[in-house]
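anyone seen this seq b4? input:
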Amino acid sequence: MAEERPARPSDIARAALDAARAASAARPQPTRRRVAGPRRRWTGPHPGADDPQLLGSLVDSLVTQQDWTSRTKVGAVFGRWDTLVGPDIAEHCRPQSLSEGELLVIAESTAWATQLRLMAPSILAKLHAQVGGDVVTRLRVVGPTAPNWKKGPRTVRGRGPRDTYG
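predicted toks r here
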């Protein structure tokens, strides 16, 4: 008569694994169906028109397609004035208008206006290098203006607003 030996842990684990395999084989397997739709075609090693792209490159292509390059250069002069001329100069003057290549700059004092007129060639060189040579061709610097007391198309010479007091 053979003596039954106690079950080892490895025998118990093997029996549990066999039972799990048998239960899995008895279950019906799901069928895989292809989702209907267009097949994906790869565009190659470089990004195509339908691949995700950087926003900066998309804006650059839009600017060239719409021929907005001159307008963006003018906008760059006004928008990046601090970085174009430097923070020291930008603190004391601001661009007012740009027409036919002439940039009108208003200084905060007459002393700064004189200094900027002396620095005009170097400021123009910075603008040519960073924005482009055809945008700003001349630089006109003016100082602050005094208040104007003329209130209409006709004026009379005299002292001004103080002459009505007597």
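DSSP finds seven helices and three strands in the chain. The chain has a mean pLDDT of 81. kinda curious what u guys think
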